[in-house]
Structure formats: structure tokens, C-alpha cells
């Protein structure tokens, strides 16, 4: 049952309960007793109070936000689901003298299958697409009263923080920093077989949730034939897996690439020596978020893969040396690839914090109350000389402070309890967050004369865009 309760506007010291007078001043209250929702209508917007739904303190929505969020057919194109106007097309009025809403009946509550807030916007303040008005003035329609309907679930989705995070996907809230010693206790990381993840969306959803939680996960029994790198029928199966979880990112290494030990290699990864903790392609402005490595052939002794959660390293630094944490979060480090006709160069802080204005922002995670981290940037093999004229690096004392902080970070990455070691088997593929998980490899030995083709260890690799993985995870939920 919906009730209309008049507010008491100030009118020369007299209180009037005339509904007509109240509507003129746009001050009245709508109450739905069934749902416990109350809406107070005022000249500049509405306030919503719904304790049963998580709105324990009245929340204000202005009319400009409501008009901008309208999902009516005249506001959102049906097939593309894209807006037909700009936020800047909505008139900004002096709320003391003019109103965006219709004078006759600006706001009502209606109960159908779901409670709806109905807002009527005045014809004289109609929203006209400025671009259309400029280039196709004849296409502009005559002004008329516009009605926007907002289901209660839609409003709650935007007002209640937990519902907003659930709908938009609070990616960092999923992350659980780990020490390697703790993973086995909780049956982590996730390990699934290719047959189950290939067709079953429920398995894929759980796999992606685990991937975002731990930063890495494994897929077994991925066929090792064919082995082709270029698109086509001969392309390796890692491409099928990559497209199952997101979209492959093409780099100067190609769509797919091979990791094979070879003489006179231009990349240390293509040798048999120890390969220390690092991340890939940090000399890009936007390094790839996810990486896949599929073991096609393993006929060597050694070569175990090693993984470290750099977010946990940063958390320990936050707890043990707060000053070092802040130095690494504010000092630029240069990364470079200058070889084979290519020259890539970019600077990043070692610890990249979320900004308040971006989707990664939010409350600190865990008991440590460490600021939210978007990414870590650590790749010693590709680190260029420090930029001497950059902030925090102009003087010798500043550089010495940075050296000490980076040394503490590096020591933590090599602490035995931090390192998860796993010997990839043939047909096994690891998927990991390249902006969070440090990966490394022990050295290995083999006898090329005893192996067909002379290659004893062969991995096929691919990079996948983070946005596509996050989109796949949201849609599968």
C-alpha cells in the first residue's frame, strides 16, 4: 500500500497540508508500507529511506542523476543498449527558482511486479542531444513530458555499496594474498582439466573466480598437438583455452609464442639457465594482465616453475617497513626492451596503488589495512637505468633510500615461505595474473643429441587482456 504524506513547507509562518500547495513546492513523502520504502520529494531531488533493503540512512538522488540514469527507450537505444544523449545535454538549473521535473505530478511510486519510482520531467527542460541538434536539427523532436521509471532493484543496485560492488564486480575484493606454505592447507591453487572447462560454464566460472582470488590456476590435459603459432587449423590448443577465458592480446612476439632453449638467444627465457622472479612486458605502458604457459614437451632434468604473490610481498613490506612501501609506491622505475629492431620503454612504480577515481578503488583489504594495489611492476632483467631527473631520484640520498626499499622487496620475494614451486607436466597449462604473480624457473639440463629436434623443453605462450577476462567472469556470474 502506497501513501502520500505531505511535508510542512514554510509559508509565511503558516503550515499548510494542501496537496496542491505541497506539489508546487515539491515537498511530500511517498511511503510503500509493503516494502518499507519511503521517498521524500523535494525541489532538487528525492531522498530514499529503506532500512529493510540496506538503506538505513536516507540517501539523496538529484534529478540530474535520475534523468541521466534513465533506461527508457527514448534514452537508451534498444539493440545496442547505449545512451542516446550526453550527461551534458541535461539542463542545469537554479533549483531555487526552476525545476527539472513536471509541476503537475513530479514523482510517484507504483507497485506492479516490482515497486517502481516514477519521475516525470518537464517538457520545457527536455533533453536534446547536442550533436544531433548541431548537425541534424530537423531530426530534433518536439519537447514533451518525459517519464522515467526506476525499479527498486535498479536503485538499490546503485545506492547500496555491497550491491553496487556485486553488480560491477569488485575485482580486488576477490584477491586473497597468500604465502606458499598456506596454499596446500586450503587446496589452492585451482587445478581443473581441459575437458571440464571447455564446455561447462559453471566450471569456467569457478576457475575464473579462483584465478582472481589467487592470481594463478592450472589446466591439465590440454592437448599438445597441434603446435602451430599462426591462426588456422594447425594452431596450438592454448589459443582455444585463451579465447575461452578472454581475448588474446597480440604483441611483437605474435599471437602465440614459443619458449625453447636455443643457442645465442636474444631472450634469457630461451636459455637453460636460472630465470629469476619477474613479470613480462613491463616496458609497455599497459603490460598484458594475464599470461598462459602450456608445456608441450618436457624431456629435461630440472626447470621447475616458481610463483610468488607480489601482493603478499607488498603486504609484508607494509607491515614491516611502512616507509619502504611508500617509497616503492611513489618512485618511478624504468623498463626497456631494445633489441632486434624494437625499442620499448616505460616507467612504473614498483607498487602501483589504486586511485580514488577508478574502478579498482575501494576499502583496504584484509586486517593489515594496506591500501589497495592495482599491480606490482618488478622485472629485473628488463630494468633500465633509473631516470635521474624523476621524482624521488634526483639526489644520491633519495636514490639510496630507494635502493634500500627495493632490496627489502627483493629479499621478501626470495623468502622460502613465499615461493610456490610446481613442475609443469606435458599437457599442463598455467594461467596467471602477470601484474600480480612473479614467475621464475630453475635451470635445467638435457642431452640434445638424444632428443628429436634438439628441443627438450618447449612451452607455448599467450597473453590475454585483463578486461576480457573480467568481463567473462562478470557475465558468467
From TrEMBL:
Pfam families: TauD (PF02668). GO terms for biological process: carnitine biosynthetic process. InterPro entries: AlphaKG_dependent_hydroxylases, GBBH-like_N_sf, TauD-like_sf, TauD/TfdA-like. SUPFAM superfamilies: Clavaminate synthase-like. It comes from the Eukaryota. Belongs to the gamma-BBH/TMLD family. This is Heme o synthase. It comes from Malassezia psittaci.
Amino acid at each position: 500500500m502506497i501513501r502520500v504524506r505531505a511535508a510542512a513547507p514554510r509559508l509565511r509562518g503558516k503550515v499548510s497540508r494542501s496537496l496542491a500547495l505541497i506539489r508546487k513546492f515539491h515537498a511530500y513523502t511517498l511511503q510503500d508500507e509493503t516494502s518499507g520504502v519511503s521517498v521524500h520529494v523535494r525541489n532538487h531531488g528525492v531522498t530514499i529511506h529503506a532500512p529493510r533493503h540496506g538503506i538505513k540512512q536516507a540517501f539523496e538522488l538529484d534529478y540530474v542523476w535520475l534523468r541521466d540514469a534513465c533506461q527508457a527507450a527514448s534514452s537508451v537505444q534498444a539493440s545496442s543498449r547505449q545512451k542516446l544523449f550526453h550527461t551534458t545535454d541535461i539542463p542545469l538549473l537554479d533549483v531555487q527558482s526552476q525545476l527539472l521535473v513536471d509541476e503537475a505530478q513530479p514523482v510517484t511510486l507504483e507497485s506492479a511486479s516490482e515497486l517502481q519510482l516514477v519521475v516525470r520531467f518537464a517538457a520545457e527542460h527536455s533533453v536534446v542531444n547536442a550533436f544531433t541538434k548541431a548537425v541534424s536539427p530537423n531530426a530534433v523532436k518536439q519537447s514533451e513530458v518525459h517519464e522515467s521509471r526506476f525499479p527498486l532493484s535498479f536503485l538499490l543496485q546503485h545506492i547500496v555499496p555491497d550491491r553496487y560492488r556485486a553488480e560491477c564486480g569488485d575485482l580486488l575484493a576477490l584477491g586473497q594474498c597468500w604465502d606458499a606454505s598456506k596454499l596446500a592447507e586450503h587446496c589452492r591453487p585451482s587445478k581443473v582439466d581441459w575437458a571440464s572447462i571447455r564446455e561447462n560454464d559453471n566450471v569456467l566460472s569457478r576457475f575464473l573466480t579462483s584465478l582472481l582470488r589467487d592470481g594463478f590456476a592450472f589446466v591439465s590435459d590440454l592437448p599438445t598437438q597441434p603446435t602451430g603459432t599462426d591462426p588456422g587449423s594447425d594452431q596450438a590448443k592454448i589459443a582455444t583455452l585463451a579465447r575461452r577465458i578472454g581475448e588474446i592480446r597480440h604483441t611483437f612476439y605474435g599471437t602465440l609464442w614459443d619458449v625453447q632453449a636455443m643457442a645465442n638467444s636474444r631472450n634469457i627465457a630461451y636459455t637453460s639457465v636460472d630465470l629469476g622472479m619477474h613479470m613480462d612486458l613491463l616496458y609497455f605502458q599497459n603490460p598484458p594482465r594475464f599470461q598462459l604457459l602450456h608445456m608441450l614437451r618436457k624431456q629435461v632434468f630440472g626447470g621447475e616453475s616458481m610463483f610468488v604473490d607480489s601482493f603478499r610481498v607488498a603486504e609484508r613490506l607494509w607491515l614491516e617497513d611502512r616507509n619502504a612501501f611508500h617509497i616503492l609506491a611513489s618512485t618511478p622505475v624504468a623498463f626497456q626492451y631494445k633489441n632486434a629492431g624494437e625499442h620499448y620503454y616505460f616507467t612504473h612504480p614498483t607498487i602501483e596503488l589504486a586511485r580514488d577515481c577508478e574502478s579498482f578503488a575501494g576499502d583496504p583489504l584484509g586486517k593489515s589495512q594496506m591500501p589497495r594495489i592495482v599491480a606490482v611492476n618488478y622485472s629485473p632483467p628488463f630494468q633500465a637505468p633509473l631516470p635521474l631527473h624523476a621524482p624521488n631520484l634526483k639526489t644520491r640520498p633519495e636514490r639510496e633510500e630507494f635502493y634500500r626499499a627495493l632490496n627489502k622487496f627483493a629479499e621478501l620475494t626470495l623468502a622460502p615461505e613465499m615461493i610456490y614451486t610446481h613442475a609443469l607436466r606435458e599437457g599442463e597449462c598455467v594461467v596467471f595474473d602477470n601484474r600480480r604473480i612473479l614467475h621464475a624457473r630453475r635451470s635445467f639440463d638435457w642431452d640434445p643429441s638424444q632428443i628429436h629436434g634438439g628441443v627438450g623443453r618447449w612451452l607455448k605462450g599467450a597473453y590475454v587482456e585483463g578486461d576480457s577476462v573480467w568481463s567473462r567472469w562478470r557475465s558468467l556470474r
